[in-house]
Every structure is written in C-alpha cells, then in structure tokens.
Amino acid sequence: MTGVAELVRRAEGLCRDYRLEAVADWKRRHGGLAVGFVPIWAPRELLHSQGVLPVAILGAGDDLEIIKGDAFYQSYICHLPRSVVELGLNGSLQGLDGMLFPSTCDVIRNLSGIWKLQFGNLLVRYLDLPQDFDRDLGGRFFVHELQELSRELTARGALPYDAGRLAASLAIYDQHRAAVEALYDLRRREPHRVPTHELYVVLRAGSVLPVEEHLAMLRDYAAAAAADATRRPLDQARVLISGSFCEQPPLGLIKTLERAGCYIVDDDFLLAHRWIRGDVRDGGDPLQALVGALLRQAAPSAVRWIGDDEKGRDLVERVGKSGAEGVIFCAPSFCDPALLDQPMLARALDAAGVPWTSFKYAENTGQFQVIREQAGTFADSIKLWSGA
Amino acid sequence: MTSTSPAAGAQQPAPGKDQSQERQKRMIAEHYARLAHAPQTGEKNAYTFVPGNLVELLRCFDVLPVLPEINALQSAMRGKSRDYIALAEKHGHSEDVCTYVKCDYGMLKSGNVGPTGERLPNPDLLLLSYTGCFTFMKWFEILRQEYEAPVVMLHVPYQGEGKVTDAMRRYVVDQLRRNVIPALERISGKSYDEDRLAAMLALSAKAEDDLVAVLQSAKHRPSPIDAYFGGVYYIGPIFTAFRGTQEAVDYYQELRAEVGERQRLGLGPVTPDGPAAQERYRVVVEGPPNWTSFRQFWQMFAGEGAVVVASTYTKVGGVYDFGFRHDPSRPLESLADYCIGCYTNLNLPARVAMLSRYVEDYAADGFLINSVKSCDSFSAGQLVILREVEKRTGRPGGFIESDLVDPRYFSAANVKNRLESYFQMVEQRRAAGAAR
User: Is A119 within 8 Å of chain B by CB?
Assistant: First the structure.
C-alpha cells in the first residue's frame, strides 16, 4: 500500500499531465485508440469495451497561459473552452484519436463544431444526451447514437462492438463507481480523513488512466486515508459545493475553502465519475442497461431536464444525507447551466431552511482572498448561528 | 437563444407604411387581444418558443401560442427591459446569463403585461420545444416554478453531424405522438385531427414560398429589401403565431407583390428615415439584432448606405430558402424536419457553409457578425465563423458586440465606430481591386 502523501503527489502529477504522457504510455503498451471527452459525461464503458481509452479533457486550470484560445471566444464566454482549444492547438492533445462533446451546454455544443473545423481528420462527435427519459423514446434514440459511435470507433481501428465485452466493462465501471462512492461516504462520515483537495486530485487523476489502474488508486487512497492516525477532526463547518460540474475550480480554490473553515462533505466536481448513481448492470442487454441507467439513474444535475421531479429536491436531500450545514454555490463565470439553475436551487434551500452563499470563479482564478473571507464568514455564521 | 419579430406594439420603422405592414400590425394586435381576453373566452394557450415551434399543431387544437422571447424583445423595444432585468437580478438571477430569460421573468413578476398593454394569460400548457438553445430548458424550469400548468418537453436532437437522420426524425415524431399530442388533447378537450393539421401545413407551405421569394429578392441590385432589419418584420407572422393560417398566406402574398413592385421600379428598401437613397454596400449579417436600440442600430447601417442582403437571424424560426417546406403529405415527419432544421440547431460547419453561400449568392461585399452577450447558442464560435467565412469567400468580415435586450450592453459609439471602420475597409478593398 502506498502512503497518502506519495499517492497524492502522483495523482497531482497526473492531474497536470496536460500533454497526455500517461495516455501516450498507455497507447505504447496497448496500441489502442484514445478518445477525449469534455464535461460532463461520456459512455466510457462503451469505449472501454472496444479497447479505447477514454480521456477526460477538463481544461488546464491556472497552469496554462491562454494565447490562441482567447482568439476563439468573446469575453463573455466561460474559460474552459479557451484552454481546451489552447491544448488542441499547442499539440497537447495530439495523442487523441477523437473527441466527444456531450450536450452539456451551447458552448460545449458549439465547441464540437469548432473541433470539426479545426481537427476534421479526427473522430469528432456530439453526444446528444436524451432529455426524454422514456426507454422507448429517449432511450431508443440514444441507443442508436451509441451504436453509431461504436461503428465509427470500429472504422477507426477500435474493436468491434461485443455485448460480452461491454458487460465486462460495465462491471469494472460499476466497481469504479462503488469505489468513488465509498470515498464520498468516508468523507461524509469523517471529513478530516478525506480532505477534498486530496480527494479531488485522486479522482481527477482518473482522467488519463485506464479504469483498472484508477480503481486501484482509489482503493489504495481509501485504505491509506482511513489508516492515517495523524488526521484529527477540526471544528469546521460542513458545506456542500454546487455548480462546479463542468469547468473545474482551481485546486487553490478548494484548499482556500478548507482553510477558511469548511469541510466539503459533498460536491459536484468531476461529475463523470458520479453522474450515474449505482450499478449499471441489470442482467440484460448491456447497451440497453447503459442507456437505461443514463435515463433513470443520472443525477438531476443542471444539464438534465428536471422531468417530473421537483427542482432542488435532490440538492436538499443531499444536504441531509451529507450532514451539510450549508451550501456554497460555486459556479464558473458565464456558466449558463449552473447560473440559470442557481435561483431555483436557492429557492429550494430557502424553503428547507438551509443557509447558502455564492461566488463565481474561472478555472484560472489566481486570487482567493475575497473568496476566503466570504467562505470564512459563511463558515463562522454556520458555527455561530446554526443552532439558534 | 434568440428569436424574432418585433411587430406588435413596437414602433414601426418607416413613414408611409405599406399595406402589408398595416395588415401585419392588425394581425398581431388581434392575436394579443385574443390572448388578453382568453380568461373570458376560454381560449387555451401554450407558452412555447419560436425555434421549432409547433404552431400548426397548436392551432389544430385551437390553442394559441405565447412566445416568451417575443415578449422579451417587445419589452426591450418599449424601453421596459432594463427594469425587468434589474428585477430578475434582484431575485437572484446572475448578470452573466441570457437577458431574454431575465426580461421575461421580470415581466412576469411585474404583472405579465404584454406588448399591447394588456395582461397575458397564464399558460394552460408549457410546451418546451427544446430546439437549438440550452437556455430554453432552464427557462421553462423557471416558468414551471411560477405556474401550475402542465409541462411537456419535446427534445429536438441537434444536427451535430450536419444531417437529419431517420433516428432523429423518428425520435421527434414519437415524442409528438406520445407526449405532445396527448397533452394538447387534454388541455383542449379536442381529438387530434391529422387532416386538419395537413390542411394547415399546406397553407404554411404557400406562405413559405412567398417568404422565400421576398428574401431572395435581395439578390437583385439594388435590393428592394433589407433582409435583416426589415427582415425581422417580414418573418414576424410566419415565425410566431400565424403559420398554417389563411391570414399568413394573404400577408405574404401581399408582401411579395409589394416587394416585387419595388424591385420592378428599381427601388431600395425602406429604412427608418424613409426610402434608401443609394445602395453602397451589400452585406450579410450573422447573429440577432439588438432590440433596445433597434432603430438606431438600423440607422447606422442605412446612414452608410449599407443594405443587408441576407441574414442568418431570419432563419432561427425555420430555414426555408434551401428548399424545406412543411409537407401536408407527411405532417408529423415534416414538423420534425422543421424543428431539427432551424438555424441554431445547425452545427458550426453548416453555419459557415450557409454564410459563405449567402455571401456568394447575394453578391455581398462582405459580412458582419453582431455578437450578443446573452446568447451562447449564437455567439460561442462566431470568431471561428468569422475567420472561416473570410477564408472561403475572400470577403472582409466585421465583428460588433451588443446584447439582445439589456441596454447596458449597447454602446452606440463603439458600434458606430466599428461599422465605420468596417465600411472603410470594404472601400479600401474595392480601391485595391480596381487598381489591380
């Protein structure tokens, strides 16, 4: 078993592997295709079953100077696509054989078109996630979409679709989801054992690793964190972070919140790992199972039509489940899904008597003093006044 | 996303109105009057959006459409959007998001008074035609919290691969059959009558023929129309409440005749300050107009002798000029094709191809992009579009920035400055071309 510090150091290195050296290494060892995807979700199970390495492209945080990317976007567009374009144009993503763009928002959607214009020789595909959740309507449509994707992958050298292989891939990803959930559960119970700035990098390291390796890393980290006797609980406010599901906050921001007196006990970072809740396998046809899980088990995030559900119900339930004492809306600037959702979610929190605060960031935000003061005041107010 | 048609209650652009303008104004005023009196008459309505609207299907059940984007742009033209947006922001809506949404929300919270000064009815149905704009989904989640009405979501798949597939069409048709039609039957108490729908679609196709003839008249020199500032009036009836009606057929016949007569006489378009004097520049425009300073914005073009000969904005409620028509022989499939084919549901390569084609087909001197802060569906990628269309056509592109309905983001001096610089560049290119 690896020590926590060493493991986290390795994870941090993988988080900053913007030139995808780990992916290149995997390709040398396995010879398969590698296909990137931008937030928030992609059918990694299907790719895996065809011998393709799914690679999460999450931008470059505050580590990359944006030069060309800014020439692609007006000032009122969020930051993520700038750094993704920058990575594409500076050659960092040349190890990828394709890119998938899920229907997260109009910026991501149009980025798929930019990719087609800039990198037309690659597989570039927009994934129109169903907003109708009936198996015979949205389900049938999305099965067809995935079959098309599968055929395109095969045409570019991936293994052909095979139900048995997909079933096996569902199984490994079910284990992966369970391992992620176990870590979140440990953090909910004993947040001092799983600081979020560690959990975050350990999860994000999975962006460039095959699922099997990342699963081992998660299990190692869980064991090491649980066994570390030096970690003692502090008198921190328990908060839930909402709104950071696409463009990721800089690591410094997460550390700032913790230093400001917050235990983050739930969040929506890196949602690809946790968008589908629970196991996907259902004993039936694996492709139907994958799509069925997407229809019925996807978390009610901002990128998904609320359907028959009540807006904010899930957030209030997560507050209860995690024992959060307050919610921090922490959304990227100009993020339509998060920011349009916020007043509706705030209304649900108000109705439930849950305190909240909000601020915005960009992935390359470098100054945290204001955020620290705001989060610190929020944490203090929870500690001082919640009981009252 | 952004949509269209300023007609009702808005200040008409020109002195000496044409017959068709008077007719349009009357039609739209009557529509709003019906809506205002719906609580008394019992007429049902559905709130829905312009892109991918299902007006024929609604009318098939005698349900009237209410279009929140139109209400927002009307509010802007009547100088009310600033207060409405401020009210929405006071209620927690971010300064970063779509101002159509905030304007509509502010209007709702201020009594939901429509463009004719009468209160709009609460919705009997919220019909979310989710076409070409992510924000639509959030918008209807917000409306859903405000009203007790039932909600139906019609997910219209995006043309990510630049084509309409059978699977996409079937997905839409199946949702129409399984979700939308039963909801309309429930609120209207009427059964679905496909023959009635087909008859309406036949009327739609007639009106669409005439609209296309009007838009394509701009290929003539001088262009008898302005296909952007004037165009938003022309698309009014067909993009909003009147597709599938005899009134729309009559309006477009009349409009076509008037435009044909101007073309025969060699006249240019009518501008806010009267008939255009001289056509100095022919330009294509991408993106929606600014509504808070619409007249001033138009005057900036007209003052330079610039005529917009084609625009993408006049395609947000349907792309008809490349051949699509509603087809009574396949009613639901045709509605599906219509929804999938609206401009903002096209991917960026298709938009680039369309703009490039416009520049060539309409013999434009160049093209301009009006990038609005509110609308990622349009704006995200426009700088790439700019470079690609320049590369393909060899004509100069210009870029200006404003907003839909938030007056804080319209800087007249900046816009004018950019336009003047742009037209100087066109002049220089001409001079250089002549010297060669």
Answer: no
Angle ∠(B112,B114,B119) on CA atoms, nearest 5: 55
pLDDT digits (tens, 9 = 90+) for B388-400: 999 999 999 999 9
Residue A49 touches partner B, C-beta closer than 8 Å: no
Residue A288 corresponds to which tokens in the numbers above? 């139907």
Q: Check if B59 contacts A (Cβ < 8 Å).
A: no
Task: Flag if B383 and A72 touch (Cβ within 8 Å).
Answer: yes
**Per-residue confidence band for B270, with pLDDT thresholds at 50, 70 and 90:** very high
Q: Most distant CA pair in chain B: distance in Å? A: 71
B411 touches chain A (CB under 8 A): no
A190: three-class secondary structure by DSSP: coil
Buried b (16+ CB within 10 A) or exposed e, A12-29: bebbbbbebebbeebbee
| Residue-by-residue DSSP string for A36-99 | EE-SS---HHHHHHTT-EEEE----TTSS--SSGGGGS-TTS-SHHHHHHHHHHTTTTTT-SEE
Classify B367 as helix, strand or coil: strand
| Residue (of B247, B206, B210, B244) closest to B335 by Cα position | B244
Instruction: List all residues of chain B from 293 to 332 with a beta carbon under 8 Å from chain A.
Output: none
CB contact under 8 A, A336 and B97: yes
Whether residue B163 lies within 8 A of chain A, CB to CB, comes out as: no
Q: For residue B203, give the amino acid letter.
A: L
pLDDT, tens digit, 9 for 90 and up, residues A207-245: 999 999 999 999 999 999 999 999 999 999 999 999 999
| ipTM of the modeled complex | 0.96
Query: If you measure CA to CA, which chain A residue comes closest to B373?
Result: A76
Question: Which residues on adjacent β-strands are paired with residue B397?
Answer: B367
Name the 3-class secondary structure at B184.
helix
Residue from B140, B158, B166 whose CB has the most chain A CBs within 10 Å, to mutate: B158
> CA of B380 to nearest chain A CA: how many angstroms apart?
6
